[in-house]
Amino acid sequence: MLRRVITLALERAGHSVLRCEDGRKAIDFLAHEHADLLITDVIMPEMDGVETVRAARRLQPELPILAMSGGGSFGPADYLGIAQAFGATAILPKPFRPAELVELVATLLAQPDT
């Protein structure tokens, strides 16, 4: 459900979106294709968001990565801080408004490659 909301908000803002149901599929994509931005949840099946961030960083070091989390049994700051320590460019705690996401994505895409 959240993937659909994110997709809708970003497509309405003019972005093309490719959805992957887990981190492993996203990394498989990044191993063969270029992306302008990766958005990942931290708590996911198959490959969690921190593993996804680390793998994406190895494949595409300049790729902006946005990690999001609602926190699960811990607070979102715990998981998001870890994701940022392992290479996420930006973090977004859940719940968030679609406009917040769209604004943050625009900011990340406007940053020059490092």
Description:
46% of the residues lie in helices and 11% in strands. Helix 1 (2-12) packs across helix 5 (98-110) and helix 2 (23-30) runs parallel beside helix 3. It contains five helices and three strands; from the N terminus they run H-H-E-H-E-H-E-H. The radius of gyration is 13 Å and the shape is globular. It has helices at residues 2-12, 23-30, 49-59, 76-85, 98-110; strands at 38-41, 65-69, 90-93. It has a single domain, classed as 3-Layer(aba) Sandwich (Rossmann fold). The longest helix has 13 residues, at 98-110. A three-stranded parallel beta sheet has the order 1-2-3, with helices on both faces. It is mainly alpha-helical and 114 residues long. The termini are far apart. Helix 4 (76-85) links the parallel strand 2 and strand 3.
